[in-house]
Amino acid sequence: MAGECRRAQELRRHPAGPARCDGPCEDRGGIGLEKIYSPGCHRADAAVIGAGTPKRFNIACSGAATTHLSRNFRTEESQLARLSTLATENNVTVVVVSVGGNDVRLTDTMKVCADAWKNDRYCSTDTAVTGPAAERVRTVGAKVAQAVEAVRAAVQDTGSSPRILVQSYPMPLASGKAATTAAHDENGWDRWSAYGCPFYSRDLRWIATGLGAALNREIKKAAVRTGADHVDLGRLLDGHQVCGKQPLQTAFAADGTVVSPPAAKAEGVRYVPRTKTELPADEAQALLHPNYHGQQALGSCLTLVVGRLASAGPGVDAQCAEPQGRLWNRSA
Fold first, then answer.
1. Which terminal residue of the chain has fewer beta carbons within 10 Å of its beta carbon, N or C?
2. pTM
3. Residue 229 has what pLDDT?
């Protein structure tokens, strides 16, 4: 429920060649891309909550914040109203809540930091950026808790008694030693054009270990306070993040064929492209969200966690971290 992490990745660098496409590449044929459906909410066919067994329903809406749960948003009825109907017509056993990131405006803040890099400025030392961001984080815990209680109320007397699983925010940007280039190279245009990473290293650290980490702490506290289950996704994308040294991206080889890295080596996030024209609004909104590979890893994580809930007591606190490699060792 609430906001959805989604969207496709463009074709970009790979050892076979640096060619890439600067516009949206919607061909999914084995290259880690996804299609978007539902014009209002722009849901992705690769989204975690999609077709599968047991039956799943995706009522999340891209860009939704906690305030949108109880009212119509974009072209659709409120998520709580739809949940109540689904819980009445089906035996709903788990409701996954992904909320908080849009309230904090984390993606918007990352885009502000990208603009700062383009203008030779740090965002992490600009109090006009850090001050409001810190205030949004300070108040987000209460909003997440209210969202959990609203979900609980929506399914009351429906015949379903689902577990509520609150997920934290998967960090899309690498930082510190995992970052793409050395500090003395961070002003080079290759950092953006070749790596899709228009960020200073110190800003990457602030986003990941400051703002993002604080957001995830507040989400966890809200889950504990309301008695919901919780899964920490903060390290889910480790080794597959934008600005990372390790992940590879799909690209065109010299002969024009598409070369796609295996999922275990692939970037799992929609990077920031360098284009000659401004991206359409929907494309811009998609930046720095999990792509097809990222969605598949998130799906693997939630499958494992939901499988635990059936036999676990209340208040499960799980974590999906990438270092073990279990979530990404798939065929491309």
1. C
2. 0.83
3. 96
